[in-house]
Specification:
Blueprint (H helix, E strand, L loop, with lengths): L1 H6 L7 H21 L5 H20 L8 H7 L3 H20 L7 H17 L3
Length: about 120
């Protein structure tokens, strides 16, 4: 569902308000799913992927959705999960750096990603 919302975000009139509410609800729901799956690494990874997908979208589109996501990506994750997330962040950062000259706000996105990488390296908050 998250992927579909992100892919069709600009197709919907007044998308910021309506779809922001849906994405925020998705963050809350994913957090609940994650909390109950300590013994299921496949589900945990899928939840983390969805959370990161929302984080990346909100970061790169300058939306105000990501305030809770970094804490969720760091706070209850294992060392191995944080390493996987770090690679996703590095991939996103590399993608931005390749197109930096043509994208408005890319400096802000890079800073957020670099901060997230540093926080992931420190471990749990």
């Amino acid at each position: 569902m998250v992927t579909e919302i992100i892919e069709h975000y600009n197709d919907y009139h007044d998308e910021y308000v309506a779809l922001s509410v849906i994405l925020q609800g998705s963050i809350d729901g994913l957090d609940s799913c994650f909390a109950g799956e300590e013994d299921n690494p496949q589900i945990r990874l899928r939840v983390l992927q969805a959370l990161f997908r929302i984080y990346r979208f909100s970061t790169e589109s300058s939306m105000d959705l990501d305030e809770d996501i970094p804490a969720l990506l760091i706070g209850n994750t294992t060392t191995e999960e944080r390493q996987i997330i770090t690679q996703w962040v590095r991939d996103a950062l590399a993608s931005i750096e390749q197109t930096r000259e043509t994208r408005w706000g890319s400096g802000s996105s890079c800073l957020k990603y670099e901060t997230l990488i540093a926080t992931l390296a420190k471990g749990k908050r």
